[in-house]
Amino acid sequence: MLVRKAQTDDAAAIAKVNVDTWRSAFCDIISDAYLEALSYTNREKNFRELICQSGDLSFAYVAEDEAGAIVGFTMGGREREGINNYAGEIYALYVSEPWQKNGVGKMLVKAATGQLFQSGISSLLLWTLAQGSACGFYEKLGGRLIINKPFAIEKDEIMFAAYGWDNIEVLL
Length: 172
Known about the structure:
- There is one protein chain.
- The protein has a domain at 2-121: Aminopeptidase.
- A seven-stranded mixed sheet has the order 1-2-3-4-5-7-6, with helices on both faces.
- The chain is of the alpha+beta class.
- β4 (88-95), α4 and β5 (124-129) form a beta-alpha-beta unit.
- The protein has five helices and seven strands; from the N terminus they run βαααβββαβαββ.
């Protein structure tokens, strides 16, 4: 498994991981209509733009299997909502279902944390679906539940949970 900085040419594969993961992981939480309407093409365009904006304090990493296929990704940067003085944030962390529970997520968290730490950031948070299976993963990594907050997805209010690390050195 190789974790490396994402390049714009990775956008289509990142979009596929993102859409497929939403459809498999959130099928009992988010409406079928919303999940079916997710577009690889639209997500690819969004990810291409985000990767182009990457810098010291905004980043994207991908995980590749031995054949060079992208099986996971993470994106992050500065914390965006000013919650409890957390300086960094992982905006996205997704691993294709067949690769989950194989250490890929942990490798991506380590890459994200390393980038934040090198940029002088020592704390971070991330958002995940409060009913999602990822909560246990973040708790095993030492994340502390900070807050639950509803977000609108179409006509539904979906509860999200923020997990935080006061000192990201434990993740390096």
